[in-house]
């Protein structure tokens, strides 16, 4: 066999690998619990399973980063009560609590949707109601996205990825 013939399969294999890298593969199926919530961001979004990914300061990521264009509306994922908050890392943030005590945390908004917003103030919202606009406040500077957490019964956070995977359309596929 000539050297060219011998190497041809290797070259083809290399192209196959490179080609595959250019195709957006379906996201890996989640293996956790998917909660009955809406997608927290309207319009086209992208995300990965970044639960417990290493973050600055030796911490682990405790949510899912849902990437969307700056200004994209973010909505309440369930009926409940929102509380506005501001943090050095979270930027303009919102806690949403439903009637069962489950809590959902939103971070990095450029702005809140309500004109009466005030830190620690409360307001009833319905699922699908716009509560904020995607931005990069806090430690998201330069990367507009929503940092989203789920806290069942108000306890420690669980991986939101299965829920995001189930509910958010136009995802990376
Ligand atoms: Zn995040």
Task: Provide keyphrases for this structure.
single chain; 173 residues; alpha+beta; Glucose Permease (Domain IIA); eight-stranded antiparallel β-sheet; two-stranded antiparallel ribbon; 30% strand; globular; binds zinc ion
Approximate strand percentage: 25-35%
> What structural class results from the helix and strand content?
alpha+beta
Q: Would you identify the CATH architecture of the domain at 54-167?
A: Distorted Sandwich
- What small ligands are held by the chains? zinc ion
Let me know the CATH homologous superfamily of the domain at 54-167.
Answer: Glucose Permease (Domain IIA)
Largest sheet descriptor? 8 strands, antiparallel
Outline, from the CA principal axes?
globular
Radius of gyration: 20 Å
pLDDT averaged over residues: 86
Instruction: Provide the CATH top-level class of the domain at 54-167.
Output: Mainly Beta
Annotation field: number of helices: 2
Percent range of helical residues: 10-25%
Strand and helix order:
HEEEEEEEEEEH
Précis, in short:
The protein is α+β, with helices and mostly antiparallel strands. Helices cover 16% and strands 30% of the residues. Residues 7-24 have low confidence and may be disordered.
Descriptive account of the structure:
This protein has helices at 3-22, 161-167, and strands spanning 54-55, 59-60, 64-67, 73-75, 80-87, 91-97, 103-112, 122-125, 130-134, 145-151. The chain is built from two helices and ten strands. The protein is of the alpha+beta class and 173 residues long. The radius of gyration is 20 Å and the shape is globular. The relative contact order is 0.24. The protein has a domain at 54-167: Glucose Permease (Domain IIA). A hairpin with a 5-residue loop joins β6 and β7 (103-112). It starts with a helix and ends in a 6-residue tail after the last helix. The chain binds zinc ion. Zinc ion binds at residues 61, 63, 65, 147. Residues 61, 63, 65, 147 line the site of zinc ion.
